[in-house]
Amino acid sequence: MKRPTAFITGASGAIGKACAERLAPDYRLLLHCNSNPDLVRKTAVELSGVTDTDIYQHDLSTGEELPPFPAENIHVFLHCAGNSSPGLFQDTHPDEWTASFNIACKSPVLFLKQITPHMIRRRKGKIIFVSSIWGETGASMETVYSTVKSAQHGLVKSLGKELAASNIQVNAVAPGAVDTAMLSAYSESDKQMLRNDIPADRLGTPEEIANTAAFLASDHSSYMNGQIIHVNGGWHT
Asked: 87, 84, 170: which is closest to 125 by C-alpha?
Protein backbone atom coordinates (compact mmCIF):
# COMPACT_ATOMS: atom_id res chain seq x y z
CA MET A 1 0.00 0.00 0.00
CA LYS A 2 1.37 3.40 -1.00
CA ARG A 3 2.17 5.65 1.92
CA PRO A 4 0.44 9.02 2.24
CA THR A 5 2.65 12.05 1.65
CA ALA A 6 3.60 14.70 4.18
CA PHE A 7 4.84 18.01 2.75
CA ILE A 8 7.12 19.82 5.20
CA THR A 9 8.17 23.39 4.44
CA GLY A 10 11.31 24.78 6.05
CA ALA A 11 12.78 21.29 6.33
CA SER A 12 16.34 22.65 6.40
CA GLY A 13 15.71 24.17 9.85
CA ALA A 14 16.07 22.28 13.11
CA ILE A 15 12.34 21.95 13.77
CA GLY A 16 11.57 21.05 10.14
CA LYS A 17 14.25 18.35 10.19
CA ALA A 18 12.97 16.97 13.50
CA CYS A 19 9.46 16.84 12.03
CA ALA A 20 10.77 14.95 8.99
CA GLU A 21 12.49 12.41 11.23
CA ARG A 22 9.36 12.01 13.35
CA LEU A 23 6.97 11.54 10.41
CA ALA A 24 9.27 9.39 8.26
CA PRO A 25 8.07 6.00 9.58
CA ASP A 26 4.50 6.72 8.51
CA TYR A 27 4.75 9.00 5.47
CA ARG A 28 6.47 9.53 2.20
CA LEU A 29 8.11 12.96 2.52
CA LEU A 30 8.25 16.04 0.32
CA LEU A 31 10.80 18.33 1.94
CA HIS A 32 10.97 22.03 1.08
CA CYS A 33 13.91 24.36 1.46
CA ASN A 34 14.28 28.03 0.58
CA SER A 35 17.91 28.19 -0.45
CA ASN A 36 19.93 25.41 1.20
CA PRO A 37 19.17 22.14 -0.57
CA ASP A 38 22.34 20.47 0.74
CA LEU A 39 20.93 20.28 4.27
CA VAL A 40 17.68 18.77 3.03
CA ARG A 41 19.53 16.32 0.79
CA LYS A 42 21.51 15.20 3.83
CA THR A 43 18.25 14.61 5.72
CA ALA A 44 16.88 12.67 2.75
CA VAL A 45 19.96 10.43 2.74
CA GLU A 46 19.68 9.87 6.50
CA LEU A 47 16.05 8.81 6.10
CA SER A 48 16.54 6.74 2.94
CA GLY A 49 16.24 3.49 4.86
CA VAL A 50 12.97 4.61 6.42
CA THR A 51 10.97 6.29 3.67
CA ASP A 52 11.06 7.82 0.19
CA THR A 53 11.88 11.51 0.08
CA ASP A 54 11.61 14.17 -2.60
CA ILE A 55 12.99 17.72 -2.41
CA TYR A 56 11.23 20.93 -3.39
CA GLN A 57 13.19 24.18 -3.53
CA HIS A 58 11.58 27.61 -3.71
CA ASP A 59 12.25 30.95 -2.02
CA LEU A 60 9.00 31.57 -0.17
CA SER A 61 9.99 35.12 0.77
CA THR A 62 9.38 36.32 -2.79
CA GLY A 63 5.66 35.58 -2.75
CA GLU A 64 5.96 34.54 -6.39
CA GLU A 65 3.99 31.82 -8.15
CA LEU A 66 4.92 28.36 -6.95
CA PRO A 67 6.81 25.88 -9.12
CA PRO A 68 4.76 22.74 -9.83
CA PHE A 69 4.39 20.26 -6.97
CA PRO A 70 2.19 17.15 -6.51
CA ALA A 71 -0.68 18.85 -4.67
CA GLU A 72 -2.99 15.89 -5.30
CA ASN A 73 -0.73 13.59 -3.26
CA ILE A 74 -0.42 15.71 -0.12
CA HIS A 75 -2.21 14.28 2.92
CA VAL A 76 -0.36 16.33 5.56
CA PHE A 77 0.81 19.91 5.03
CA LEU A 78 3.21 21.01 7.77
CA HIS A 79 4.40 24.61 7.52
CA CYS A 80 7.64 25.00 9.47
CA ALA A 81 9.20 27.71 7.29
CA GLY A 82 9.88 30.95 9.09
CA ASN A 83 12.33 33.76 9.64
CA SER A 84 13.04 36.30 12.35
CA SER A 85 13.89 40.00 12.08
CA PRO A 86 14.72 41.16 15.61
CA GLY A 87 15.20 44.86 16.15
CA LEU A 88 13.48 48.11 16.98
CA PHE A 89 10.21 48.74 15.18
CA GLN A 90 11.54 52.09 13.89
CA ASP A 91 14.45 50.29 12.22
CA THR A 92 12.36 47.74 10.34
CA HIS A 93 12.17 48.06 6.56
CA PRO A 94 9.02 47.47 4.50
CA ASP A 95 10.86 44.70 2.65
CA GLU A 96 11.28 42.81 5.93
CA TRP A 97 7.54 42.97 6.53
CA THR A 98 6.79 41.77 3.00
CA ALA A 99 9.28 38.90 3.09
CA SER A 100 8.15 37.71 6.52
CA PHE A 101 4.47 37.87 5.57
CA ASN A 102 5.18 35.98 2.35
CA ILE A 103 6.92 33.18 4.27
CA ALA A 104 4.44 32.98 7.14
CA CYS A 105 1.13 33.54 5.36
CA LYS A 106 1.12 34.11 1.62
CA SER A 107 3.16 31.04 0.68
CA PRO A 108 1.09 28.56 2.73
CA VAL A 109 -2.05 30.12 1.28
CA LEU A 110 -0.68 29.54 -2.23
CA PHE A 111 0.17 25.94 -1.36
CA LEU A 112 -3.16 25.28 0.30
CA LYS A 113 -5.19 26.76 -2.55
CA GLN A 114 -3.86 23.84 -4.59
CA ILE A 115 -3.81 21.18 -1.87
CA THR A 116 -7.17 21.64 -0.14
CA PRO A 117 -9.42 20.77 -3.13
CA HIS A 118 -7.87 17.28 -3.12
CA MET A 119 -8.22 16.97 0.65
CA ILE A 120 -11.86 17.99 0.39
CA ARG A 121 -12.50 15.37 -2.29
CA ARG A 122 -10.84 12.71 -0.12
CA ARG A 123 -12.62 14.03 2.97
CA LYS A 124 -9.39 13.76 4.89
CA GLY A 125 -6.38 15.96 5.53
CA LYS A 126 -4.12 17.55 8.11
CA ILE A 127 -2.85 21.13 7.95
CA ILE A 128 -0.37 22.13 10.64
CA PHE A 129 1.49 25.37 11.26
CA VAL A 130 4.53 25.76 13.48
CA SER A 131 3.84 29.26 14.74
CA SER A 132 5.14 30.90 17.92
CA ILE A 133 4.29 32.01 21.41
CA TRP A 134 4.84 35.56 20.11
CA GLY A 135 1.81 35.16 17.88
CA GLU A 136 -0.26 35.11 21.07
CA THR A 137 1.60 37.45 23.42
CA GLY A 138 3.64 39.69 21.12
CA ALA A 139 7.27 40.49 21.85
CA SER A 140 9.25 43.69 22.15
CA MET A 141 11.94 43.96 19.46
CA GLU A 142 10.08 41.29 17.45
CA THR A 143 7.22 43.27 15.92
CA VAL A 144 7.57 41.76 12.44
CA TYR A 145 7.76 38.18 13.69
CA SER A 146 4.99 38.63 16.26
CA THR A 147 2.67 40.21 13.70
CA VAL A 148 3.01 37.52 11.04
CA LYS A 149 2.71 34.73 13.60
CA SER A 150 -0.48 36.32 14.90
CA ALA A 151 -1.74 36.36 11.32
CA GLN A 152 -0.97 32.65 11.08
CA HIS A 153 -3.14 32.04 14.13
CA GLY A 154 -6.02 33.87 12.49
CA LEU A 155 -5.62 31.71 9.40
CA VAL A 156 -5.54 28.52 11.48
CA LYS A 157 -8.66 29.43 13.45
CA SER A 158 -10.75 30.53 10.47
CA LEU A 159 -9.62 27.80 8.06
CA GLY A 160 -10.03 25.22 10.82
CA LYS A 161 -13.70 26.13 11.09
CA GLU A 162 -14.23 26.26 7.33
CA LEU A 163 -12.71 22.85 6.61
CA ALA A 164 -13.97 20.96 9.67
CA ALA A 165 -17.07 19.67 7.87
CA SER A 166 -14.78 18.12 5.25
CA ASN A 167 -12.91 16.14 7.94
CA ILE A 168 -9.80 18.28 7.53
CA GLN A 169 -8.06 19.38 10.71
CA VAL A 170 -6.18 22.69 10.78
CA ASN A 171 -4.13 23.43 13.90
CA ALA A 172 -0.91 25.07 15.04
CA VAL A 173 1.95 24.31 17.39
CA ALA A 174 3.10 27.47 19.15
CA PRO A 175 6.59 26.87 20.57
CA GLY A 176 8.15 28.96 23.28
CA ALA A 177 11.92 29.29 23.47
CA VAL A 178 13.45 26.38 21.55
CA ASP A 179 17.17 25.72 21.23
CA THR A 180 17.59 26.35 17.49
CA ALA A 181 19.55 28.70 15.23
CA MET A 182 16.80 31.29 15.68
CA LEU A 183 18.27 31.95 19.13
CA SER A 184 21.79 32.31 17.72
CA ALA A 185 21.66 36.08 18.19
CA TYR A 186 21.20 35.55 21.93
CA SER A 187 24.28 35.51 24.16
CA GLU A 188 24.67 32.70 26.69
CA SER A 189 23.67 35.09 29.45
CA ASP A 190 20.53 36.02 27.49
CA LYS A 191 19.69 32.33 27.08
CA GLN A 192 20.19 31.79 30.79
CA MET A 193 17.79 34.65 31.52
CA LEU A 194 15.25 32.88 29.30
CA ARG A 195 15.76 29.61 31.18
CA ASN A 196 15.32 31.39 34.50
CA ASP A 197 11.95 32.70 33.32
CA ILE A 198 10.66 29.30 32.18
CA PRO A 199 9.09 27.08 34.89
CA ALA A 200 10.60 23.97 33.26
CA ASP A 201 14.01 25.65 33.75
CA ARG A 202 15.26 24.86 30.25
CA LEU A 203 14.81 25.58 26.57
CA GLY A 204 12.64 23.31 24.47
CA THR A 205 14.03 20.94 21.85
CA PRO A 206 13.08 20.61 18.18
CA GLU A 207 12.07 17.02 18.89
CA GLU A 208 9.47 18.14 21.44
CA ILE A 209 7.89 20.41 18.84
CA ALA A 210 8.01 17.58 16.29
CA ASN A 211 6.24 15.23 18.71
CA THR A 212 3.34 17.65 19.01
CA ALA A 213 3.21 18.14 15.24
CA ALA A 214 3.17 14.36 14.77
CA PHE A 215 0.20 14.11 17.15
CA LEU A 216 -1.64 16.73 15.11
CA ALA A 217 -0.80 14.79 11.93
CA SER A 218 -2.24 11.59 13.38
CA ASP A 219 -5.79 10.30 13.67
CA HIS A 220 -5.60 10.97 17.42
CA SER A 221 -6.32 14.65 16.69
CA SER A 222 -9.43 13.96 14.60
CA TYR A 223 -11.69 16.20 16.74
CA MET A 224 -9.30 19.15 16.97
CA ASN A 225 -9.85 22.15 14.71
CA GLY A 226 -8.49 25.67 14.80
CA GLN A 227 -6.43 25.09 17.94
CA ILE A 228 -3.17 26.75 18.94
CA ILE A 229 -1.21 24.20 21.00
CA HIS A 230 1.30 25.84 23.35
CA VAL A 231 4.56 23.99 23.91
CA ASN A 232 6.63 26.28 26.11
CA GLY A 233 7.55 24.62 29.41
CA GLY A 234 4.92 26.64 31.26
CA TRP A 235 6.47 29.95 30.21
CA HIS A 236 3.13 31.48 29.24
CA THR A 237 -0.13 29.79 30.17
From this structure: 170
The CA-atom distances, in angstroms, between 203 and each of 1, 18, 176, 179, 190 are 40, 16, 8, 6, 12
In angstroms, the CA 187 to CA 71 distance is: 42
Q: What is the pTM of this model?
A: 0.96
Task: List, run by run, the mean pLDDT of 10-residue segments along the chain (237 residues).
Answer: 92 97 98 92 96 97 96 98 92 96 98 99 99 95 96 99 99 96 83 93 97 99 98 94
Catalytically annotated residue among 56, 145, 186, 223: 145
223 is catalytic: no
